[in-house]
């Protein structure tokens, strides 16, 4: 799936950068002012160019040979699209083993930074297009993690935060942190005794659910299935009682749903934050 680029960052000569939408640029202005001064809206290094066809259609594209300068999780990153790309990306994600407590801290930090940024009023324009809001995660780079054998020490790669709007089939089997807004909450207790819950996210194109399978409440950090049900019901109340959209961030493997759309499989209570609150905070509400 080729993702259309609708905005870029413009770097002026004074060293400031600001988001600019494609419709704000004319051919003449591009040649005069913007050429060579536009980079990816997701804070990647890749430079962006502007083209206007004779029929007036405008589009942004990545400079030749700079497709790989988009970060791995950027939807404009070329090397990781397509079949080979997907398996490469899966390998990358599966190679990362991060402790659940660290994940919890990162998700919580991300949410509070995001809220702070939103209150600045600045984030809105650029964030419409962003797949990740906090791209620099310096602290994480300084922490160590165990590899698959649990023996070697290394550096934790940044946790990548992706907007649910940009989750696509290319993400299947990847393990990612996805953020979005909850549209509705469902708790399913079917006749065959299987119990699961999910949050349906507000998305334009694809159905994206934050999904809580049995593995979630079987996790040693969850008290009981009743506790899990209480959590789901409380989140449902947060969503139905709140006139503002309620934000969620979840970390898990992206799986294809039986019928259509994609699930983010959450298997630990430390991998989910709703409106800045942890699983445990929500139980106490
Ligand atoms: Zn990019």
Structural write-up:
The protein is of the alpha+beta class and about 280 residues long. It contains eight helices and 15 strands. It has helices at about 25-35, 80-95, 100-120, 125, 140, 215-220, 225-240, 280-285; strands spanning about 5-10, 15-20, 40, 50, 60, 145, 155, 160-165, 175-190, 195-200, 210, 245-255, 260-265, 270-275, 275-280. The strands form four sheets. The protein has a five-stranded mixed β-barrel. It has a three-stranded antiparallel β-sheet with strand order 2-1-3, with no helix packed on it. A hairpin with a 5-residue loop joins strand 1 and strand 2. The protein is elongated, with a radius of gyration of 20 Å. The N and C termini lie far apart (about 40 Å). The model is unreliable at about 120-155 (pLDDT under 50). Zinc ion (ZN) binds near residues 40, 42, 44, 46 and 74. Zinc ion binds near residues 42, 44, 46, 74 and 76.
- Cofactors and ligands present? zinc ion
* Span between termini: 42 Å
The amount of helix comes to: 25-40%
Question: What is the alpha-carbon Rg in Å?
Answer: 20 Å
What is the topological layout?
Layout: E1 7-11, E2 17-21, H1 27-34, E3 38-40, E4 48-52, E5 58-62, H2 82-94, H3 100-120, H4 123-127, H5 138-141, E6 144-146, E7 153-155, E8 161-163, E9 175-189, E10 195-201, E11 208-212, H6 214-218, H7 225-241, E12 247-256, E13 262-265, E14 272-274, E15 277-278, H8 279-284
Parallel strand pairs: 8-9, 11-13
Antiparallel strand pairs: 1-2, 1-3, 4-5, 6-7, 9-10, 9-12, 10-11, 12-13, 12-14, 14-15
Zinc ion is lined by residues 40, 42, 44, 46, 70-71, 74, 76.
């Amino acid at each position: 799936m080729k993702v259309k680029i609708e905005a870029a960052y413009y770097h002026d000569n004074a060293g400031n950068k600001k988001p600019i939408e494609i419709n704000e640029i004319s051919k003449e202005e591009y040649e005069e002012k913007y050429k060579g001064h536009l980079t990816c809206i997701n804070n990647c290094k890749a430079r962006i160019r502007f083209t206007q066809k004779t029929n007036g259609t405008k589009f942004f594209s990545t400079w030749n040979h700079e497709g790989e300068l988009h970060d791995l999780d950027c939807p404009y990153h070329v090397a990781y699209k397509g079949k080979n790309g997907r398996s490469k990306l899966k390998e990358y994600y599966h190679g990362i083993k991060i402790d659940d407590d660290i994940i919890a801290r990162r998700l919580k930090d991300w949410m509070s930074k995001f809220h702070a940024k939103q209150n600045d009023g600045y984030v809105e324009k650029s964030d419409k297009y962003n797949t990740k809001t906090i791209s620099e995660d310096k602290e994480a780079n300084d922490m160590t993690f165990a590899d698959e054998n649990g023996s070697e020490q290394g550096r934790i790669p940044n946790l990548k935060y992706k907007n649910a709007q940009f989750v696509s089939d290319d993400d299947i089997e990847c393990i990612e942190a996805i953020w979005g807004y909850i549209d509705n909450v469902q708790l399913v207790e079917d006749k065959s005794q299987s119990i699961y819950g999910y949050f349906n996210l507000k998305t334009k194109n694809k159905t994206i659910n934050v999904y809580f399978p049995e593995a979630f409440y079987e996790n040693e950090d969850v008290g009981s299935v009743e506790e899990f049900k209480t959590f789901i019901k409380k989140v449902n109340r947060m969503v139905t009682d709140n006139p503002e959209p309620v934000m969620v961030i979840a970390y898990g493997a992206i799986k294809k749903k039986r019928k259509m759309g994609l699930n983010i499989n959450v298997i630990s209570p430390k991998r989910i934050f709703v409106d800045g609150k942890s699983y445990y905070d929500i139980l106490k509400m």
